[in-house]
Amino acid sequence: MLVNSYSKKIFNLAYQFAGNYEAAEDLTQEIFLKLYNSLPKFDFTRNFTAWLLTLSKNYLIDQYRKTKLEKTSRDEFDEHLLAADPKFDPETELLANESKRLVWEGFNHLSPDIRMAVILRDIQGKKYEEIAEIMTLPLGTVKSRVNRGRLQLARVLKDKKVGSR
Amino acid sequence: MKCEHIEELLSPYLENELSQEQKQTVAAHLKACSSCRELLSLLQEVSASLTAFPEVEISGELQNRLQAVPDKKKRFRLNLDFLIRPSLQPILAAATVLLTVVSFYAFNPNRGDINKAVERQFHTGYQKIEKLYVRAESFTNSLSGQKEILIDTIKTKNPLKREKE
């Protein structure tokens, strides 16, 4: 069933993009409503997951522009995202979590298109070709957006580290 | 090569997407430039943080809400089907016109003036009808006068009577 197969994937995309748990729940519900309405238009020669991610991406970016999602603060980097990684010792884990927190907050500095490209590439681990299909953009543009996003996040990380010293 | 050009190549450098020549250029620059080395290290930190973002579980409540989406959509479709029945279209069009006229009246800031104008028109119309009624009555009277004259004329100038005489 569609909900069982895709709900977690879509919710995580919405949460990583919007940064707010409750907003992500509402966005996921709206995306599924839109999905059921658009299903009759689905071209069966296309890849369904890519089509669903395109629909989700379009909805999330539209909502971002309409409702100024950037002005709603991102959740604190809390229990939803702090998954202990058994590879690290406690001190390394603390440092890694601090970096994750700074990067999570740094998403607010990225424009919606760049933010989406970085999420799809670096968090969801998609190939550049898949992102180009999802975002309906040329491959070069996708690579350039991911690159710009990473550089912006690196600078945010640097500024925050300098600020906290 | 300047730092700003190298910065653009750092992400592809980390992803091993550069040509052999480009790789050597970046490596040579990194040996000499501490600022670009720091940026490379921050980019690695950003990349490690993003890759380590965990997948968040969705709540049972959201799962239930999503399971209910197809029913919600079906109910919505039924209502919509009822509203878009062709036989209802003339009624909907008439209702739209009526509502537009009513809203023009209801939300008009000069509603008092409109009331007065309507009242004036009503009185003028009423007066015209009264005048018409009076005219009709006088015409009826004049007709009944004419009728008597006509009867008298017929009586006095009756050709049959004359023939007998």
Major β-sheet profile of chain B: none
- Uncertain segments of chain A are none
Helix/sheet category of chain A: mainly alpha
Proportion in helices of chain B: over 70%
Tally the helices of chain A: what do you get? Answer: 7
CATH class of the largest domain in chain A: Mainly Alpha
Portion in strands of chain A: under 5%
Tell me the radius of gyration of chain A: 17 Å
In short:
With 165 residues, chain A is mostly helical. Helices cover 71% and strands 0% of the residues of chain A. The longest helix of chain A is centred in the C-terminal third of the chain and has 26 residues, at 139-164.
Verbal overview:
The complex is a heterodimer of chains A (165) and B (165). Chain A is mostly helical and 165 residues long. Chain A has two domains: 2-71, Orthogonal Bundle (Rna Polymerase Sigma Factor, Chain: A); 90-164, Winged helix-like DNA-binding domain superfamily/Winged helix DNA-binding domain (Arc Repressor Mutant, subunit A, Orthogonal Bundle), CATH 1.10.10. Chain A is 71% helix and 0% strand. Chain A is globular, with a radius of gyration of 17 Å. The model of chain A has no long low-confidence stretch (mean pLDDT 85). Chain B is mainly α. Among the domains of chain B are: 3-51, no CATH class; 111-165. In chain B, α1 (3-14) packs across α2 (20-32). The chains are: A mainly alpha (165), B mainly alpha (165). The A-B interface holds A 3, 7-8, 11-12, 15-16, 25, 28-29, 32-33, 36-37, 80-81, 83, 85, 96, 99-100, 102-104, 118, 122-123, 125, 143, 146-147, 150-151, 153-155, 157-158 and B 7-8, 10-12, 38-39, 42-43, 45-59, 61-63, 65-67, 69-70, 72-73.
